[in-house]
Hints:
binds nicotinamide-adenine-dinucleotide; alpha/beta; homotetramer; Rossmann fold; binds sodium ion; seven-stranded parallel beta sheet
Amino acid sequence: MTTSDSEKRTGIWLIGARGSVATTAIAGAAALRDRLIPPTGCVTESPELLDEGMPGFDDLVFAGHDITETPLPKRAEQLEVAGILPRGVRELVHTDLAATDQRIRRGVAPEEAGHDQLETAERLIEQLCSFRELYGLSRVVVINVAATEAHPPARSEHTGLEELEHGLRRSDPDGGTVLPPSSLYAYAALRAGCPYADFTPSTGVRLPALDELAARRGVPYAGSDGKTGETLVKSALLPMFSSRALHVHSWSGTNLLGGGDGRNLADPDNVTSKTTSKQRAVHESLGYPVDGEVHIDYVSALGEWKTAWDHISFEGFLGNRMTMQFTWQGCDSALAAPLVLDLARLLARAHERGHSGPLPQLGFFFKDPVASDEHRLVAQFETLRTFVRRLREEQ
Amino acid sequence: MTTSDSEKRTGIWLIGARGSVATTAIAGAAALRDRLIPPTGCVTESPELLDEGMPGFDDLVFAGHDITETPLPKRAEQLEVAGILPRGVRELVHTDLAATDQRIRRGVAPEEAGHDQLETAERLIEQLCSFRELYGLSRVVVINVAATEAHPPARSEHTGLEELEHGLRRSDPDGGTVLPPSSLYAYAALRAGCPYADFTPSTGVRLPALDELAARRGVPYAGSDGKTGETLVKSALLPMFSSRALHVHSWSGTNLLGGGDGRNLADPDNVTSKTTSKQRAVHESLGYPVDGEVHIDYVSALGEWKTAWDHISFEGFLGNRMTMQFTWQGCDSALAAPLVLDLARLLARAHERGHSGPLPQLGFFFKDPVASDEHRLVAQFETLRTFVRRLREEQ
Amino acid sequence: MTTSDSEKRTGIWLIGARGSVATTAIAGAAALRDRLIPPTGCVTESPELLDEGMPGFDDLVFAGHDITETPLPKRAEQLEVAGILPRGVRELVHTDLAATDQRIRRGVAPEEAGHDQLETAERLIEQLCSFRELYGLSRVVVINVAATEAHPPARSEHTGLEELEHGLRRSDPDGGTVLPPSSLYAYAALRAGCPYADFTPSTGVRLPALDELAARRGVPYAGSDGKTGETLVKSALLPMFSSRALHVHSWSGTNLLGGGDGRNLADPDNVTSKTTSKQRAVHESLGYPVDGEVHIDYVSALGEWKTAWDHISFEGFLGNRMTMQFTWQGCDSALAAPLVLDLARLLARAHERGHSGPLPQLGFFFKDPVASDEHRLVAQFETLRTFVRRLREEQ
Amino acid sequence: MTTSDSEKRTGIWLIGARGSVATTAIAGAAALRDRLIPPTGCVTESPELLDEGMPGFDDLVFAGHDITETPLPKRAEQLEVAGILPRGVRELVHTDLAATDQRIRRGVAPEEAGHDQLETAERLIEQLCSFRELYGLSRVVVINVAATEAHPPARSEHTGLEELEHGLRRSDPDGGTVLPPSSLYAYAALRAGCPYADFTPSTGVRLPALDELAARRGVPYAGSDGKTGETLVKSALLPMFSSRALHVHSWSGTNLLGGGDGRNLADPDNVTSKTTSKQRAVHESLGYPVDGEVHIDYVSALGEWKTAWDHISFEGFLGNRMTMQFTWQGCDSALAAPLVLDLARLLARAHERGHSGPLPQLGFFFKDPVASDEHRLVAQFETLRTFVRRLREEQ
Ligand SMILES: NC(=O)c1ccc[n+]([C@@H]2O[C@H](COP(=O)([O-])OP(=O)(O)OC[C@H]3O[C@@H](n4cnc5c(N)ncnc54)[C@H](O)[C@@H]3O)[C@@H](O)[C@H]2O)c1
Ligand SMILES: NC(=O)c1ccc[n+]([C@@H]2O[C@H](COP(=O)([O-])OP(=O)(O)OC[C@H]3O[C@@H](n4cnc5c(N)ncnc54)[C@H](O)[C@@H]3O)[C@@H](O)[C@H]2O)c1
Ligand SMILES: NC(=O)c1ccc[n+]([C@@H]2O[C@H](COP(=O)([O-])OP(=O)(O)OC[C@H]3O[C@@H](n4cnc5c(N)ncnc54)[C@H](O)[C@@H]3O)[C@@H](O)[C@H]2O)c1
Ligand SMILES: NC(=O)c1ccc[n+]([C@@H]2O[C@H](COP(=O)([O-])OP(=O)(O)OC[C@H]3O[C@@H](n4cnc5c(N)ncnc54)[C@H](O)[C@@H]3O)[C@@H](O)[C@H]2O)c1
Ligand code: NA
Ligand code: NA
């Protein structure tokens, strides 16, 4: 069976479509399509993961939700000033950005999320479906790259699909909110039959009720929280300590970042979902408790750049105490954007091949992988490689 | 079939038996046997690699060659002052050190190596055999932890066993030396039927002629250059860059160290084998040339401690330039000693199970692994794990 | 006029006399007296500051207050295990520690401070006076090296001596506490005519009422918060940025420390006085607001060692953004103890020469110097040098 | 007395006028004149050093020597790509760069320097004098910002002016070169009555013969080797160790840099003058020998940016061993360029006020200050401040 071009036309619907990550991904995809840049940072373009069956860069159509009005071309200019988008590239993809901006719809802000959740969900579903239809897309992958939310309190409606749909239908007598925005987006995506991924640590699809929905609708999902900086390095280094039987006493981290993500994480409520997600790897990889805090500080002067310093104290033979430190200076959006494209292509392909429910095979991309407690980057990569090979062979 | 205790009694013959690594290994093995310390840093004691069939810590008898006269108990005191051997431990293993010191024989210094190499080899073989016999050992594993040598010029005698034995028999008309000391030790070990490992970057067993000898004698060997510090971290980090399709432009390293190893590596001839071995991982893992130098500086104030600083510049999506730096502050002998014990146990076991020739499965331990170009630590660990499982099952 | 030996016998009364800093200072003074160690870290022994008129190490008698019962010799053993006190030294000064321990009196814990403050003060004064008399001391210098307190709320009693003494006399109708323990100790010291220094960021002598008392009693005082680590480096680096007209955008710091001080500063109330004191230098030296947070994390595995990482982003010519980072790995008590001895000697000498009130000339020693906004270390050193020269000449 | 505008018109003649530092200085001066940028990094614009009597940015006319043909506007474009010159600024100063480029004359390459040195010198002098006359300049300051040369062997002609002029007049029978290019430029400058500064570690004016000439011609000079990165930080940190009586055991440094300076210093001959100059501060400030090497590695990927890592091991009270590390990531040309402007203004003013010979008061700017062994940055700044105040008052 050959895949005709029209069968590959794929929509990428980004929640937070005017943010730094989204803008970089949209601009980057256009630049890749036109071969203005090499696919550095794009793992689905590496020889080991290449799969002709995945949608190509000229098969992608972007759209999304956001709650800001700043248009994409304007955001792209800001990213040029910040040193992330080369001027030449930005100018050449201007038309793509302007066209995509027309396809961005008004999303749901946290403070609005409480009202008429079912009605809101129907609107979101309807938007996803019209997009798919209008552009004749074989499928639409939804990826959440919106600002990180605070983790909501647990509710009985989260435990099963029936409870959830019952809860969404009636208004909460206590005025509470059944689903945070991220989960409302995920609910809509799954109901519309769209593969879905949480690139943020927000709750999103990570509720039993939504897992049930994904299974019922036969849709695959992935998450959470893109692994791009400090945690990426952690997941590379942790197996060194464990496989060498070195005992880690403490692992402390300080992250300095500016940009919108930094400003949002300066809010103590929002940062908790992030720091929790960042420490998961340490505890799960080592299997014993480790001292040390993770700080995330907003430093506006750093712009879109992040600096992370980690300090690890460990013990070797005969009780000898040693330390390792690292400093990571990365451009977060440039690290995240190609992974967003990778995820969209992989989810589209997995959906096509009939995969549904959580995809632990995509743990390579995430700080807090669904349905998996493997955090070792190399092992995750091997799993991903095997997964892609099977996708290819199944054909 | 059960392995009777006497069948497990194993000799460990250390070349450089009075050096820091050797002294720490000998003292540590006695402390482990008496349960004075936990097996931190000893990978063959980790649940994933444990194999009851390997010799236990009470099955080991140490001996070796060295060219210094400073007795082991004295070296141990120096290591106590340097903060590596806890006083309590040193006092409790004093008797073991004194006893082992009696079994250390005069080795071959580089400047003496040229004379009557065959005669010298016969003496070394005879020493290994008497040790095995006298102590009723099922086998003797020889490990080279002597000072790093300069790499010798290539010679035709190195290319095959016949050429080598011919060359050793007659005296070189040009006064040259057929084998450097490390290779002479390796030759003797193999001829005596002893499994052998190069923990140093010296030539040792890494000659076609000796590979042939190992095959003929049915003896396994491993090497080279224990991976304990900067290169260990490199081999954990390199797959992060490659699997994420990030392009590494430069990888620069500065190593500051005191101790005997530091003093020896301050000699520009000797350091070359080390820096070559240290850069192998970068080039082979990435598959493209990378800028950057590796410096090894002798800083006496650091004593037995090493500080390595590495600086990596790399490129991500859209040409964004990023950097990573790390500082590693480790106690080299405490990192190396448990691996020496691990290697001895694994080689003994592999020999028992009939393995011979190079063991690429032990690449996990080395900067410059024999018969392998896999440098990714996690992949090496998986290979080792499979190897140990098979050793266990073969039984 | 010659200073007879008896005139130089000087008491050093330490608040927190069984803490790490105090124990290291007491043990170190005995070791210096017996010439067991060189005076590394002791600035009053450097050729530039040496003043024969200051009390020598054999003129010092130690005593103090604490609220723990752990005796000094026991604390010294703990500091030996922590790697701060060399075993040889500890054994040789054991008798001094045991004798000093006999002179330590029960202090005032924060939770007890509220009761009968005047009565408590009289007891403290009486203890100081008996010590001076019993040992025939020409004077007693009181130095606060107790655990850092939370900063108390401002009160009208703090504004003048009359108000204070009136407030201490009657019990607070609202059950509040007029003075925190550190200020109660300072009040007692000044009333007993003892020169006083705050080596901690606790309130101590830094109240208008106590300043008035010091003037009236003709007693000099100094403070606050010994400058030994991150802030010491800051005060060396800040003038580099300002004198070169480089614009600092952010200065972020993370301090990892174990020990008693670390445990105490893990309490968010106590840490505030510390972080405030730590940021003073940045803002006052540069004269404009600078971004960045200071974190103090308790990491028990680090024991008595502290690691500080600072990240500075700054701007140069043509808007170029640059960064500097430093890591400081120091042993806090070993840095602090000799300064405690220096302060005691300098305060004793200044008192002898008739100085009273705040001594801004000792700003060199402090994060938060009294009566001074000069933070540049080199300038502070020049001031101190001039001060010592005058003390010498006045004779 | 007021200084009329015409009296202030000042020439700045740069040796290496098309290099990174020169181009940045010329572009920056035009931008400052037109108030396109703030004077960040320019110390003569700070309130503490401002002197109305110095030439203003609209009083400066640039010219110089170079041996490359790449015109200034082209170099400026390269510096824009490297991220040093903001595009806006570069476009706005284009005309100035093009005009200055017309005033750049062919210099003397090291390989040409041997021929007819007196004749060459006469040509250089003539070029300086015509420039001064043609533009009606009150004076011309010559600053060497050319590529660092290898240090030449000592020669008897260097020891006195008479010997030198004698030597220049006749051709060397052995074919040797009397003066390296940098000294030939310095000789010409002094003979033309121009104040002179060596911003490089090249020999330049640092010969007894040239000192004599400066005195005779009544011209002030300054040098050597601009203090902008690692050594700047060293000179800020060294007094911390010395004033606190901490004993420094080792100070190791690795400098990674790209750019033309990096490429030139990759030559082992040239780098020696640099590393020598870099270590001067450590030895002279501490007064005792300190271990540690300085490496300068060319890493082309770093472009015009430099990363320096320094590691310092030191000892405190009771023999405690501590360490400090720092990483400096700076843009060398942006750090150097404003200092070149500062030096030109200060030398012009000093010349006007009648100063001649070496100016140790400008030690603040140099790694290897003439006629001074003070390296403490704060002390150097105080000296400079006093010097500027006097210049102002003398009026
Ligand atoms: N960049 C990385 O390396 C990386 C890694 C892991 C996770 N993330 C996560 O990705 C997300 C995006 O990061 P960014 O740097 O692009 O941030 P950003 O602040 O630039 O963009 C976030 C966008 O989300 C929009 N938004 C906020 N709330 C919304 C809502 N309820 N509905 C729809 N849109 C909403 C904002 O208007 C904004 O345009 C963050 O949550 C971040 O934590 C990023
Ligand atoms: N410690 C580590 O982490 C590590 C890692 C990889 C490799 N190594 C290598 O292990 C070796 C030992 O390191 P160390 O720190 O113990 O050094 P060391 O200097 O303390 O000990 C070396 C010993 O070898 C002896 N020796 C020298 N030449 C000899 C010869 N020809 N024959 C027999 N003995 C000889 C010396 O007398 C000395 O006792 C070095 O080559 C080092 O490069 C160490
Ligand atoms: N070590 C340094 O470099 C440094 C630098 C600046 C300031 N300081 C300050 O010095 C102080 C001492 O540090 P440390 O490391 O010795 O701490 P520590 O915890 O080892 O010792 C503190 C001692 O104070 C005692 N104490 C607590 N409350 C008391 C009270 N109300 N009255 C009397 N004693 C009391 C404790 O029992 C303990 O013995 C801390 O406040 C610290 O912040 C230390
Ligand atoms: N940038 C800094 O922070 C800094 C600090 C201290 C010293 N320096 C020194 O300043 C100098 C210039 O640095 P750069 O980054 O501009 O280097 P660069 O390589 O960009 O420029 C050097 C220029 O000198 C020219 N040149 C070479 N030999 C010459 C000669 N004999 N006569 C005339 N011109 C000659 C070259 O053609 C080139 O244009 C170097 O010596 C460097 O070591 C720079
Ligand atoms: Na924080
Ligand atoms: Na070098």
